[in-house]
Amino acid sequence: MGLKERLEQLRKEGLQQIANSSDPDKVNAVRVSMLGKKGSLTAVLRGMKDLAADQRPVVGKYANEVRNDLQAAIEKRSAELAKNILNAKLQAETLDVTLPGTAVAQGQPHVIQQIIDQLEDLFIGMGYQIAVGDEVEEEVYNFEKLNLPKDHPARDMQDTFYVTPSVLMRTQTSPMQARMMEKHDFTKGPLKMISPGKVYRRDTDDPTHSHQFNQVEGLVVGKHVTMADLKGTLQEVARNLFGDDLDIRLRPSYFPFTEPSVEVDITCFKCKGKGCAICKNTGWIEVLGAGMVHPNVLQMSGVDPEKYGGFAFGLGPDRFAMLKYGVEDIRDFYLNDVRFLTQFNEKG
Ligand code: DAH
Fold first, then answer.
1. Which of 40, 264, 304, 318 has the CA that lies 20 to 30 A from 282?
2. Phi-psi region of 127 (alpha: psi -120 to 50; beta: other; left: phi over 0)
3. How far is the CA of 289 from the centre of ligand 1 (A)?
């Protein structure tokens, strides 16, 4: 076979193989087998030196054409295949955004947190700041600075989880009173704060107590703060949480850090004061403790009781939730049974 025929044969074979190649690797393999260093076309080109001088330019031109044809076919086929691959990929990855999605179960704040959130909204609206304290507290702040010196009998009910002899799990949120007063610049205006958080006490094995529960402390200290301000504020709280038609009443009580101290009752929201099982036929339900901040407490936090004074209160969101939803065992709030917890969803 003459060189020309051989070239023609190679061109045919090559074009055929390129056309039949179903992926870029195969196209490349054809390229190597024909145009590579040891390729069949390269071999023919090398044999040209044996041709007669007048044949060389003719065959050479022809050989170049064959090589160019093959090269062009290779490029074209490679591009085609690359495009096919991309299209297949795009096809495979198509997202039908109209298909229904997979529903994600939606959570909700814990029922106690819902009550705290509601209280925070209310108090922020009245110009209070929210101050969050530490659950591990110094004894000095938890007791001493609240007018509960060592050996004070009122400590007995609370003296409990100690971390070191002078550090304990706080038994009340009241230490935030002292901490906030110490930091506040009273020449710039009154201090108005609430402080929600967890507190810890010795467990008494009964359904209305838990070794850990929540409190929301309230404190207003400034000039000319009166007990009427306290009553008006608590009236707002009661109505906001339990209903607009409720009244509150204050009864004398005792707390070491307030003088005078009061126990605050609200009209029974169930019977509206007529008397029922919830209010034990009194028409009233006890909801929180409060009072006018004791001068000793002011003084120990560096506040001059001659110039400034105010009120404080402490309420239990757990107790509020129990009353509001008729829950009889406080421990249900802490068992994390979602069947129980999902019943309470204020926001619907
Ligand atoms: N700290 C009190 C307790 O845990 C609750 C309390 C009562 C807080 C009266 C106050 C208050 O700020 O004025 O029993």
1. 318
2. left
3. 5
Report how many domains make up the chain.
2
255 C-alpha vs ligand 1 centroid, how far in Å?
7
Q: Residue 329: give its domain's CATH number.
A: 3.30.930.10
**Ligand 1 in reach of 264 Cβ (< 6 A):** no
Residue nearest (by alpha carbon) to ligand 1 atom 6: 314
For residues 295 and 148, membership in a common domain is answered with yes
What Rg value do the Cα atoms of the chain yield, rounded? 43
103 lies in a domain?
A: no
Which atom of ligand 1 is least distant from the CA of 290? Answer: 13
Distance from Cα 314 to the centre of ligand 1, integer Å: 4
Report yes or no on 309 lying in a domain: yes
**CA of 174 relative to ligand 1 center, distance in Å:** 6
Which of 145, 255, 259, 293 maximizes ligand 1 atoms within 8 Å of its Cβ, making it the mutation to test the pocket? 255
Kindly state whether residues 87 and 116 are assigned to the same domain: no
Integer Cα distance of 11 and 24 in angstroms: 19
> Per-residue pLDDT tens for 68-98?
999 999 999 999 999 999 999 999 998 888 9
CA distance 307 to 300: 14
Residue 1 has pLDDT above 80, yes or no: no
In a domain, 98, yes or no: no
Neighbours of 157 (CB within 10 A): 11
Q: Are residues 64 and 176 in the same domain?
A: no
Q: DSSP for 216-235, please give it.
A: EEEEEEESS--HHHHHHHHH
**The model scores a pTM over 0.85:** no
Same domain assignment for residues 133 and 265: yes
Residue type for 275, please? G
Look at residues 92, 120, 135 and tell me which one is the last residue of a structural domain. Answer: 92
Residues 119 and 226 in one domain: yes
256 Cβ below 6 A of ligand 1: no
Would you state the pLDDT for residue 347?
A: 58
**Top mutation candidate among 313, 315, 320 for ligand 1, by most atoms within 8 Å of CB:** 313
In a domain, 100, yes or no: no
Q: Are 179 and 261 in the same domain?
A: yes
